[in-house]
Specification:
Helix 1 packs antiparallel against helix 2 and helix 2 packs antiparallel against helix 3. The chain has one domain. The radius of gyration is 11 Å and the shape is globular. It has 53 residues and is mostly helical. The termini are far apart.
């Protein structure tokens, strides 16, 4: 569980860095972060990225 949490935070930081360049507003990045924490599902966030960028 600890390793999984670490990997999720690592991916979350990568997505946050990526969307800081891609997102049209910081609200979009915050929305992605909230989804990641609430769902704890990187795959879900990945699909969210594909359909909304």
């Amino acid at each position: 569980i600890m390793l999984s949490t670490y990997v999720n935070l690592l991916f979350l930081n990568l997505f946050e860095w990526y969307f800081s360049f891609r997102a049209q507003s910081k609200k979009f990045t915050i929305l992605l972060m909230l989804q990641a924490f609430l769902n704890e599902d990187i795959v879900n966030m990945f699909w969210f990225q594909i359909f909304f960028t």
